[in-house]
Design a protein that fits this description.
single chain; alpha/beta; Rossmann fold; 10-stranded mixed beta sheet; two-stranded antiparallel sheet; 7 helices; 25% helix; 28% strand
Length: 276
């Protein structure tokens, strides 16, 4: 099975408080911040690796290709995924500020038409833009079945369909989709029993979360080739549907005050804060 996993580079969520707005208010800058693979995309990579392996035998039984759209530095995030175990990497050179979900979907559509993967696995959203749109737009463009927010995934024995379980109010639903398909995953997909591929025994208990790259994996990743292409060479329409006019920081919080007793606190909450 061939699986394509898009991975976006984002500022380390642990340092989000260091993100700044440019002087002209037109962009959000991440200068000096550590860039990491989008967490939900890492979950998609882990899902793809579990699908394409015979875990007890330590054998790869499929092919995982990781693609990222961005500047040359995005190759670092691709290399990190190759160290986890992915076989191939693709860097589509582009400017982060000139991308939106529609442009990303157009890129992935071109790559799907070129490489014909059996499955496109995506994180449900990026933690910077939080738009949760690229996967749905892509499925519509390709006319492929889709399951979103997947928390558990089972591959059919014949490898021609899958069942994705997603959480809903009051429980969960199980949806079957024939392959090829587009699937977006939620964080619960990387729980120990989140993925069943029909080859690794069903009672296999994985460690929770995305796997760490081993020293062997890191060394192997250095030898793996990352294909570098451009938006122009793919023939992608780069016209965006979403543009940002201006960014403004939220107003600073006022300092708190002390009150002598509960009676005064209730009075201020009622008369000044209008909270009660």
């Amino acid at each position: 099975m061939k699986i394509l996993v898009p991975v976006k580079r984002v500022a380390d969520p642990d340092n989000v408080n260091k993100v700044k707005i440019s002087a002209d208010g037109k962009t959000v800058t991440a200068e000096g911040l550590v860039m990491k693979p989008n967490p939900f995309d890492e979950y998609a990579v882990e899902t793809a690796l579990r699908i394409t392996e015979d875990a007890p035998a330590g054998k790869r039984i499929g092919e995982v290709t990781v693609v990222s759209i961005g500047p040359d530095d995005a190759s670092q995030q691709i290399r990190a995924c190759l160290a986890m175990g992915a076989e191939k990497g693709i860097l589509v050179k582009g400017d982060d500020e000139k991308l939106d979900a529609t442009v990303v979907a157009r890129v992935l559509k071109k790559l799907y038409e070129r490489d014909k993967p059996d499955l496109i696995l995506m994180g449900k959203q990026a933690v910077d833009g939080d738009s949760n749109q690229a996967g749905q737009i892509l499925a519509e463009m390709l006319g492929l079945p889709m399951v979103t927010f997947v928390a558990k995934l089972e591959l059919a024995a014949d490898g021609k369909s899958l069942i994705g379980q997603r959480e809903v109010d009051g429980g969960a639903v199980r949806l079957q989709a024939t392959l090829p398909a587009v699937v977006t995953v939620d964080l619960r997909i990387v729980l120990p029993g989140g993925v069943k591929n029909g080859i690794t025994p069903a009672d296999k208990v994985y460690a929770e979360g995305p796997r760490y790259a081993s020293l062997k994996g890191i060394m192997a990743a250095k030898k793996k080739t990352i294909e570098t292409i451009t938006l122009e060479s793919l023939g992608v329409d780069t016209g965006r549907r979403v543009t940002y006019l201006k960014f403004e920081a939220p107003p600073g919080r006022k300092a708190g005050i002390k009150v002598p007793d509960a009676v005064e606190l209730v009075k201020k909450l009622h008369e000044e804060a209008k909270a009660i």
